[in-house]
Write a structure and sequence with these properties.
This protein is α/β, with parallel strands linked by helices and 212 residues long. The protein is built from six helices and twelve strands.
Length: 212
């Protein structure tokens, strides 16, 4: 992959536009989403996890709401992200009714709940993370929405915290261009397969949300 950062960013924009067009055009999203969420729930990492971060779907993304409801019933600690001042923060969700359209219309915890200290969560507290994105490759490369929110959040995730992307097969590309600071997934799940990555979490020295 070309190492010129400006060319890499141009390539990312091209892939992002194509991936979003593919996803919009995809039929049968509900059925495909059920298969993807079923694969996620069947993971040994999910069975072992006490605290799981989910994204709550928006627009053409893999539909996740039903899996969130399932996780409540299974006794999981359910965590969701929300954006505040350009930073992703984490909230322990007790009911789907605690959500309302937030940044860009994405379902987020209602503002009145966010002030509760007992609901705040740190990334180090997560056992498993379901990660959204626009495009992926089978080796765990991820392309987000362009703001870097999730990369910044997940850069601090312990190695024991599993990062698993949920995507439609049409969102997969041969290779996603990755820059230092971009975070690789441990697994990518589609309606067709579970793809496992054996790459390090990040490329380069920078490892120390949507939009990212």
């Amino acid at each position: 992959m070309n190492s010129d950062p400006s060319r890499t960013k141009d390539l990312k924009r091209t892939i992002r536009a194509e991936a979003r067009a593919r996803r919009r055009a995809l039929g049968g999203k509900d059925a495909a989403s059920r298969l993807i969420c079923g694969r996620f729930a069947a993971l040994p990492e999910y069975a072992a996890a006490g605290t799981v971060m989910f994204y709550v779907h928006f627009g053409d993304e893999v539909r996740t709401r039903q899996l969130v409801e399932q996780a409540f019933g299974e006794g999981k600690e359910v965590v969701v992200p929300y954006c505040e001042a350009g930073v992703l923060k984490l909230f322990r969700l007790k009911s789907i009714d605690e959500l309302a359209p937030g940044t860009w219309g994405i379902p987020e915890p209602k503002v009145e709940h966010r002030r509760r200290v007992d609901r705040r969560v740190e990334v180090r507290d997560l056992d498993l993370v379901m990660v959204p994105g626009v495009a992926f490759d089978r080796g765990g490369g991820r392309l987000g929405y362009g703001k870097g929110y999730f990369d910044k959040l997940l850069a601090d995730a312990p190695s024991a915290t599993r990062l698993v992307a949920a995507a439609f097969e049409c969102q997969l590309f041969p290779e996603i261009p990755m820059l230092p600071g971009d975070v690789f997934m441990d697994k990518v799940i589609t309606e067709k397969a579970v793809y496992e990555s054996f790459r390090p979490r990040s490329r380069g020295a920078c490892r120390s949300a949507r939009g990212g």
